[in-house]
Amino acid sequence: MKSFKNHLSLVIALLSILFSLQVFTIVDRAIDAYKENLAQNYSLVVVAQKRLDASHIISGNRLIESMSELSPDDVIKKLNSGISKQNIALLKLTLPKFYKLKLKYYPSPRELDTLTKSLLRTASIQKVETFSKTHDTTYKLLLLFKTVISVFAFTVLIVTILLIFKELRIWQFKHNERMSIMGLFGAPVWLRSAVLFRLAIVDALIASALSFVVFSYLSAIPWVTEQFHNIGIHVVVFDKVYDFLIMLGVSIVVSMLLATFIVLGHKEEV
Question: What is the Cα–Cα distance from 171 to 173, expressed in whole angstroms?
Fold first, then answer.
C-alpha cells in the first residue's frame, strides 16, 4: 500500500499530461479532417469575358485542384418567360463564361485573398466570387477552437510539470540521508540518485500503459465514432502504435528531465 501511494501521485500527474496531449492530437486531427471536408464542398466562381484555358489557370495557381465551366442553361431557364429560341441562343452568346474552381485544401483568408488577386490579373477574368464572409467566419471559428484547446493543453502541461517536480523533490527528501551517506563513500551522482531515476522510469511506463488502455477503449466506443460521423468526418482517435510511442516518449522524457534537474540542483548537507 505504501509503495502504491508513492507512485500514485506521479502517475496521475503524468496521465494528465498524456491525456491533454492526446486530446490536443484528436482535436488537431478533427480540424484537419473537417478542413478537408470543407475543401471538398467549397469552391470559387470565376466570371470571364471569354473562354479560359483551364490548364493555364491551374498551372499558374498551386492552390487550384480543378476547374470546370458552368452551363448557362440553368440561369437562362430562370429568366425564360416566353423568350424565343432565337433570342435564347443569342443570350447564350452574350452571357459571360462562368467557371467553378475546386481547391486542394481549405485556404486561410490570406491565401484566398492572394489567389483572388492572382486570378484577377488575368485579363479576361471580370470577377471572382469567393463567398469570403462565410469562408472567413468558418475559418476563424476553427482557428479559435484550436487556439482554446492549445491554451488549455499548455496550461495543464505547466501545472502538471510543477506537480511532478514537487513530487520528485519529496522523494529526494525521503532518500536524502541515504544519498548523503553514499556520497561520503564516494558514490557518483547517478548511483546516489538511482532510486529517483528508477521511480521516474517506472511511473512513466505505468502512465503510458494506462493511457494506452484508456484511449484504446475510447477509440473502440461506437458513440465516439458516431459523433465524428455526424459532422461528416473520420478521425483516428488513437493510433495504437504511433500515438502510444509518442506518449511513451513524452512521459519518459518529462520524468527524466525533471529528475535530472532535481539531481543537479541537489546540495549535499555539510
Answer: 5
Q: Are residues 184 and 238 in the same domain?
A: yes
Structural domains in the chain (count): 2
DSSP 3-48: HHHHHHHHHHHHHHHHHHHHHHHHHHHHHHHHHHHHHHH-EEEEEE
Per the structure block, which three cell numbers stand in for 63? Answer: 492552390
Site of grid cell 443570350: 91
pTM of the complete model:
0.71
Q: Which residue has the cell 485573398?
A: 113
User: Contact, 161 vs 254, CB < 8 A?
Assistant: yes
Q: Are residues 82 and 156 in the same domain?
A: no
pLDDT band at residue 24, thresholds of 50, 70 and 90? confident
Residues 153, 260: one domain? yes
Tens digits of per-residue pLDDT, 231-245? 778 888 899 999 999
Q: Report the pLDDT value the prediction gives residue 225, as an integer from 0 to 100.
A: 82
Q: Does a structural domain hold residue 270?
A: no
Parent domain of 120: 43-130
| In-domain check, residue 189 | yes
